[in-house]
Structure formats: C-alpha cells, structure tokens
Design brief:
Elements (H helix, E strand, L loop, with lengths): L8 H4 L5 H4 L5 E6 L2 H19 L2 E6 L5 H9 L6 E5 H9 L26 E14 L10 H4 L9 E4 L5 H8 L7 H5 L2 H12 L5 E4 L4 H7 L5 E5 H10 L4 E16 L7 H11 L2 H6 L11 H4 L4 H4 L13 E2 L2 H20 L1
Length: 348
C-alpha cells in the first residue's frame, strides 16, 4: 500500500524543527502508492511540513514490493529518503536490513498508538482496507457479501482484482465457506492454498487484473468490470470527489496498516525521521481522513476525526463486523512461495 492548510502548521511544529528550517532547499525523496492517497498525503502532511521547515518533497509512485529497494541497497546507491510500505514488506525489509531502525522514543507516548502500529523499523501512517465496489447505477440488486463477488450467475460480468494473491486468496476461502477468523489457519495448509486457487478458478475467465490502485476505480468507471477489488479510500474518493455512483461492500474487508520507513543509506535520514514524527502527532494523524477515508493509527486521534467521516472508515463498527486483519507474518513467510504458484496459475 503512499500539503496542507496553513492554519494547521502550528500543530505540526510543536516539536523542534528549528534545526531543519535553516537548511535551505533540502528535498526529501518519497516513494508512495500514488493516486488519491498521495494527493491526500500532500495536503495533510507534506505541505504543512514544507511550510514549517522549508523542506520540499519529491514524490515517486510504485506498486509495492521490495525489488527496487533491494537493488538500491546492493548497489549502495539509495536515492529514496522515505518509503511507503505494506506491512509484510515492512517486516521483510526490516529483517533483510533494507530499512534503518527507528527511535521509538521520538514518538512520545506510544501507548496512544493502536497495538502493533510501531515496529523496529517503521511507524504506521494509517489504517486502510481492501473492499470491493460496484456501480449502483448499473446493478438492480446490490451485492452485499464476498460470496456475491464470486457469484457469476446472480451477478454476471467481469470482476476486477489486484494482480496479487494477497486478499484474493483470503476472499476465495471465505466465499468457499471458511469463517473469516479461521482464514489463515486454513490458508496456512497446502490443502487450504489448493482450495483458494480452486475457488478463484470459478471466476478466472471473468477477471480483469489491475496493478496500480488508481486503476481499480477507473475500471469501474469505464464499465470494464461489474465489481472491482479496491482500496477503500480510492472508492470513497471517486464517490465523493468525482460524484461516481460507486458503493463499497465491507463484508470480509481485509484491513492493514500502511507504514513510513527510512531506507538504509538514505541521504536525508534525519529529516525523514523528523517528518515521520510530525505526521504521527494526533492532529496530523487525524488530518489525513479529511482528504481520504483512511483511519488514523493512534487512539487519541480518532476523536479528532469528523463524526460524519467516521462511517467511511474501515474501523467503523458497521464496516468491521466480518473484517479480517491481514496476517503480515503469514505473508512475509509465505509470499514468495504463493506468488510463484500464482504466476504459474495466471498462465494456465
């Protein structure tokens, strides 16, 4: 899973930024997942930090994974200062020495953070979710469950899926009758993996694959698919800002943290660390939700989120009934093996 309002700058600069405000024209090179999330991050975090410190941001988009980061480290030529990571990649990158250790003491009262949102090498920036969405203007009957996503008789048409086994494997098992709370117990067995692929086989000919998060709502807008797996914030952004008649289905949503981390060998590591601390403060943490429907990773920030906005968050009670938290350790341990099988499956 990758600017904002002058009046809020003071809230972001409570801690000592004087040391960086004197550094002329310093630029942080940041890699994010792009699209609506990056636009929101610019408004909520990048621009206020620039206004407070004079530090600029140069952004680059990617689709996740560690290949480029690993290549930079091997070449001893790291050009990124800050990287936006999904949880399993944050774990793997830290284990492989691709990320610098983060000084947790700089965050202050860490008990205010949701458990599991601070690691040795990274700090969670928000809570996001993978859901599926449909165009309400084109379906007479609204789908309500993950089973409906796999039901081509009840809901004929193409399905959009991220070109990755992650989440799709979980959904396949749940649609095949596995209780959400048991999904990783089943997926952790060879028979469970076989079962997930067998369920995906039932819709394989109707799948349209996407790789960039921005592609998901576009597939729906273009009428290329009837339903699409998507990041919840991208669907909310299309509905709220572009007035698209898109509706999210929260059943079996798979939620996760997004993480900021500093690559080993980053040229502006100290400034990147100060930025991470700045966006982790309660007001800044809550600020992102004004621009995209992702929830803050700290408990004391939730009270600062607009009440009308809370219903759009992955953590809203009505959205959370059958939610699945991504098992990052499972994917960190099994991603290579399952990805290899997934690539073979794609060609069959």
């Amino acid at each position: 899973m990758r600017t904002h309002i002058k009046a809020q700058c003071a809230a972001l600069t409570v801690f000592a930024f004087a040391t960086i405000s004197t550094q002329a024209a310093e630029t942080l090179s940041v890699v994010t997942f792009g699209g609506a999330y990056e636009a929101a991050a610019k408004k909520a975090w990048f621009e206020p930090f620039t206004q407070a410190t004079g530090v600029n941001f140069s952004t680059e988009s990617y689709d996740g994974g560690l290949a480029k980061l690993s290549a930079m480290e091997q070449a001893k030529n790291t050009t990124w200062d800050l990287i936006d990571l999904e949880t399993n990649d944050a774990i793997t990158a830290c284990d492989e020495g691709l990320l610098q250790k983060f000084d947790k003491k700089t965050l202050g009262k860490t008990s205010d953070f949701i458990p599991g949102s601070i690691s040795d090498c990274a700090v969670a920036s928000m809570v996001w979710s993978t859901v599926y969405a449909y165009d309400a203007s084109k379906l007479k009957t609204a789908p309500t469950t993950v089973n409906d996503f796999f039901d081509l008789q009840k809901f004929p048409g193409k399905r959009g899926l991220r070109k990755s086994p992650k989440v799709s494997m979980e959904w396949a098992l749940i649609a095949d009758g596995v209780d959400p709370k048991d999904v990783y117990k089943v997926l952790g067995t060879p028979a469970g993996v076989d079962r997930a692929f067998k369920k995906l086989d039932t819709i394989k000919k109707n799948i349209v694959w996407w790789e960039s998060g921005a592609q998901a709502p576009q597939l729906l807008a273009d009428g290329a698919v009837v339903m699409v797996q998507a990041y919840n914030g991208r669907i909310d952004d299309a509905a709220k800002k572009d007035n698209k008649p898109f509706k999210a289905v929260w059943d079996a949503q798979v939620y996760d943290f997004e993480w900021w981390a500093i690559p080993t060998g980053a040229k502006h590591a100290d400034t990147a660390a100060k930025f991470i601390v700045s966006q982790a403060q309660p007001k800044a943490s809550a600020e992102l939700s004004k621009y995209i429907a992702y929830a803050p990773p700290r408990k004391d920030a939730v009270a600062l989120v607009d009440k009308q906005r809370l219903a759009d968050m992955p953590t809203a009670p009505d959205n959370f009934k059958r939610a699945v938290q991504i098992n990052a350790n499972f994917w960190a341990d099994n991603a290579d093996q399952i990805n290899k099988r997934f690539q073979v499956w794609l060609t069959q």
